[in-house]
């Protein structure tokens, strides 16, 4: 998936620490408020457990911990973004999510060598829209075990 | 005309017809003279041809057409049924199946079938794939179809006699067809020819050696017929034999010895006739409709939601303690339990749908391996949940291949061991309690204890020290260990690196177990135990600190409170004494690293669970209660979590994990 050949992207923008990230909207099923999570023993530390998402048991990943950031207590703004990739449905815990954006193809650039604090391998590219810098996540890498 | 709306129907029906053809072909192999079987196959092939031509699948129609021609030949007794001929027809059916699958998968159903079509054409023209087999035809003999039988019976009732006349022409006879014509002329003068073998068309074309057989009904005495025929020149010999009343039943009761009293044979023939139509009427009597399986799955999913809400309602009504509400909820619970039974039953499919491909597989493998094997299927009507049916096929294929390849010995070996040359594999299915058992038993060589031990040691599956303490049963179980394969030579049939461990893990993933027993020289028995249904199970909910877990009732023996001083230590492993047995104590809070778990109090609540013969005591904080829950998967992202087999949604909407006891009992 090279950014240069992509047409305009519709993305969901969300906040993690002080940075803004984006996921293509076709991968996003829904955005949920925080809800009780059942811990699943013996899984990776960033897998917080499973929730009952309208009758479907859905695993939840804390994106902060996935990227190795310090965990923060969940608050009013905390959201779970339910994403789907191939045959997997997973919820991602983020600090806040409230924006849907259209990213023109020309605004997207390949990832720089070092960007923010996220390991570059999770990143598909960066986009500059007005004054905002959005980091496009490579979902396959994020969900890679 | 847009055919796409008929496509699903076409695929479904084609599959049914192909299955019917498969089954009937195997039957035909056993009873090559049974024309009713050929007729059935012919009808299925004919329908298939018509449907595929309408749908525009040329290759399919073409191949079926050729097949139909050959079947027609068999029906008209121009061709005789030989294993080689059946091989070609089976091959054609294989092609047809592949084409239908291709169409079902969205393909166009084209396939290169020229070779098979060519072979069928050759057979149709009377050329046998194997000339040898064609010439080995048994001495001429009449077999009567149902219709002919009735004609003969009627003739007899009206005072005619039935004669079978064997006519042999002289070696130097030049105009065979002319002589045949004269014989027929003579016979027609005094009676009526009912049947000729070979058929009249072949006689007219001189497609026979020197001998032919005719059946005649006549009022004339036998010696008059004899005299009339002997008057024709170039006739070597004429044998006229009068048919007694029981002989025409030879077809239906071929095996029955003619010495048997005629009455008995009659009865048997009548019974055999009565049986076939009866089967059909039973099938017609139950009215069925075709329901797309996806709809059933959706129904099941919706019902699962209902079960979750039912749990929630039950909980609320308990909390509110309102008499009318409680009563209503109880009634609703009862109704939904009935509904559950019905829905689960609707999803039940007879194991036949899996079993019916095995006879062919066994036939083919047996031919490839040069072994003689008979497959007996018992309890094919046993029903299992569709989800289990979908998964159970491959493990069974593996076990049957295994029995054929490693179990049943070659015919000469069997003969040397004083066994009948034909080995028997028995495939049994039956219900017992809440489980379905599927067993595969062979009367082959059995499992060699020494070979298994030797291999297990060399593969590092058991240490030589541990091996000494194993009993026979434990040694046999070693064949299920990963990386184990006893085949001395890797054959095409089994032992392709995929071992029995895969069979075991597939069955365990279905919530079942598999075990093996064997008697050297006598054979082996593989026994699979499966739950009736996968989706709704009874569990015991238990509390560990703040977390709730569910333990399937099917693996629980009982619950108990154990005093602190009754917990002992053996080899650093805490154990308890349970009814005189030493049972290891597994503290779930340690296994699952439950946060905030307190130390044991004065007494520990334990759940005794079982895996086969082995027990374990699972220590929990408290018991919550028993509940019917819907088993859900953890999703593909969390595909394998240790000792957790799935999850369920409780009455309060929270998720509880279901414990996989098999992983905890060592």
From TrEMBL, chain A:
Gene3D superfamilies reported for this sequence: CheA-289, Domain 4 (2.40.50.180), SH3 Domains (2.30.30.40)
One Pfam family matching this protein: CheW
Membrane-spanning ranges: none
UniProt domain CheW-like: residue ranges: 8-145
GO CC terms, sorted: cytosol
Signal peptide: none
Single biological process term from Gene Ontology: chemotaxis
The name this protein goes by in its record: Chemotaxis signal transduction protein
Organism of derivation: Geobacillus kaustophilus (strain HTA426)
UniProtKB/TrEMBL annotation, chain B:
Enzyme class: transferase
One Pfam family recorded for the sequence: HATPase_c
Catalytic reaction(s) noted: ATP + protein L-histidine = ADP + protein N-phospho-L-histidine
SMART domains xrefs: CheW (SM00260), H-kinase_dim (SM01231), HATPase_c (SM00387), HPT (SM00073)
Histidine kinase domain ranges (all copies): 284-534
Domain spans labelled HPt: 1-103
Alphabetical keyword list: ATP-binding, Chemotaxis, Kinase, Nucleotide-binding, Phosphoprotein, Transferase, Two-component regulatory system
GO BP: any one term: chemotaxis
InterPro entries membership: Bact_Chemotaxis_CheA, CheA-like_dim, CheA-like_homodim_sf, CheA-like_P2_sf, CheA_P2-bd, CheW-like_dom_sf, CheW-lke_dom, CheY-binding_CheA
Coiled coil regions in record: none
Residues bearing PTM Phosphohistidine: 46
Single Gene Ontology MF annotation: phosphorelay sensor kinase activity
Record-listed E.C. numbers: 2.7.13.3
Region (Disordered): 240-261
Limits of the CheW-like domain: 536-666
CDD domains attached to this UniProt entry: CheA_reg, HATPase_CheA-like, HPT
Keyword Transferase tagged: yes
Gene Ontology CC annotations of this record: cytoplasm
Protein name: Chemotaxis protein CheA
């Amino acid at each position: 998936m090279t950014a240069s050949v992509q047409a305009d992207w519709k993305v969901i923008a969300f906040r993690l620490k002080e940075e803004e990230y984006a996921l293509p909207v076709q991968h996003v099923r829904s955005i949920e408020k925080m809800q009780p999570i059942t811990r699943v023993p013996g899984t990776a530390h960033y897998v917080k457990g499973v929730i009952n998402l309208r009758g479907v048991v859905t695993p939840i990943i804390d994106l902060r911990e996935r990227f190795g950031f310090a965990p923060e207590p969940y608050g009013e703004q905390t959201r779970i973004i339910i994403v789907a990739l191939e045959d997997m449905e997973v919820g991602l815990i983020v600090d806040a999510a409230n924006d849907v954006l259209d990213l023109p193809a020309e605004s997207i650039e390949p990832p720089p060598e070092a960007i923010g604090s996220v390991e570059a391998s999770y990143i598909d590219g960066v986009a500059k829209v007005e004054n905002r810098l959005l980091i496009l996540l490579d979902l396959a890498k994020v969900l890679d075990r | 005309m847009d055919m796409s709306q008929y496509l699903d129907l076409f695929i479904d029906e084609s599959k049914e017809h192909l299955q019917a053809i498969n089954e009937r072909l195997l039957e035909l192999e056993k009873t090559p003279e049974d024309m009713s079987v050929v007729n059935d196959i012919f009808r299925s092939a004919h329908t298939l041809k018509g449907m595929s031509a309408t749908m525009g699948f040329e290759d399919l129609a073409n191949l079926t057409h050729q097949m139909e021609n050959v079947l027609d030949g068999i029906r008209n007794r121009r061709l005789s049924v030989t294993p080689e001929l059946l091989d070609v027809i089976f091959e054609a059916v294989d092609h047809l199946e592949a084409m239908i699958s291709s169409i079902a998968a969205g393909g166009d159903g084209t396939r290169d079938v020229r070779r098979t079509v060519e072979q069928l054409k050759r057979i149709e023209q009377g050329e046998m794939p194997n000339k040898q087999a064609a010439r080995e035809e048994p001495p001429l003999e009449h077999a009567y179809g149902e219709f002919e039988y009735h004609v003969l019976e009627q003739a007899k009732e009206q005072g005619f006699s039935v004669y079978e006349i064997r006519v042999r022409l002289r070696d130097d006879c030049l105009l065979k067809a002319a002589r045949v014509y004269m014989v027929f002329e003579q016979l027609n003068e005094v009676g009526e020819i009912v049947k000729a073998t070979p058929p009249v068309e072949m006689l007219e074309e001189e497609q026979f050696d020197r001998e032919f057989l005719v059946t005649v009904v006549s009022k004339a005495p036998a010696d008059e017929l004899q005299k009339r025929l002997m008057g024709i020149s170039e006739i070597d010999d004429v044998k006229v034999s009068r048919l007694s009343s029981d002989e025409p039943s030879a077809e239906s009761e071929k095996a029955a010895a003619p010495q048997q009293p005629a009455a008995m044979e009659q009865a048997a023939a009548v019974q055999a006739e009565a049986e076939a139509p009866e089967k059909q009427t039973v099938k017609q009597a139950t009215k069925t409709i075709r329901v797309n399986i996806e709809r059933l799955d959706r129904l099941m999913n919706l019902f699962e939601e209902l079960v979750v809400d039912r749990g929630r309602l039950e909980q609320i009504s308990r909390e509110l303690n309102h008499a009318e509400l409680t009563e209503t909820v109880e009634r609703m619970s009862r109704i939904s339990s009935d509904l559950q039974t019905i829905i689960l039953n609707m999803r039940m499919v007879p194991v036949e749908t899996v079993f019916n491909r095995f006879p062919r597989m066994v036939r083919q493998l047996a031919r490839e391996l040069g072994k003689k094997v008979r497959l007996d299927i018992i309890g094919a009507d046993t029903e299992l949940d569709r989800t289990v049916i979908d998964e159970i096929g491959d493990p069974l294929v593996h076990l049957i291949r295994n029995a054929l390849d490693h179990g049943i010995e070659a015919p000469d070996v069997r003969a040397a061991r004083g066994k009948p040359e034909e080995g028997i594999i028995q495939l049994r299915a039956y219900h017992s309690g809440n489980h379905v058992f599927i067993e595969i038993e062979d009367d082959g060589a059995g499992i060699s204890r020494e070979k298994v031990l030797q291999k297990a040691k060399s593969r590092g599956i058991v240490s030589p020290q541990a091996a000494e303490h194993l009993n026979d049963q434990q040694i046999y179980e070693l064949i299920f260990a990963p990386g184990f394969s006893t085949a001395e030579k890797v054959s095409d049939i089994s032992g392709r690196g995929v071992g029995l461990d895969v069979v075991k893990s597939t069955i365990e993933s279905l919530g079942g177990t598999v075990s093996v027993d064997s008697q050297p020289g006598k054979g082996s028995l593989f026994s699979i135990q499966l739950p009736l249904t996968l989706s709704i199970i009874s569990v015991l909910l238990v509390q560990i600190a703040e977390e709730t877990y569910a333990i399937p009732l099917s693996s629980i023996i009982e619950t108990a409170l154990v005093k602190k001083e009754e917990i002992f230590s053996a080899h650093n492993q805490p154990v308890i004494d349970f009814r005189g047995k030493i049972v290891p104590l597994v503290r779930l809070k340690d296994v699952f690293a439950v946060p905030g778990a307190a130390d044991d109090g004065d007494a520990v609540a334990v759940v005794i669970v079982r895996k086969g013969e082995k027990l374990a005591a699972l220590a929990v904080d408290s018991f919550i209660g028993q509940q019917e829950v819907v088993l859900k998967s953890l999703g593909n992202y969390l595909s394998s979590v240790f000792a957790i087999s799935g999850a369920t949604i409780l009455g309060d909407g929270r998720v509880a994990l279901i414990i996989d006891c098999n992983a905890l009992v060592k």
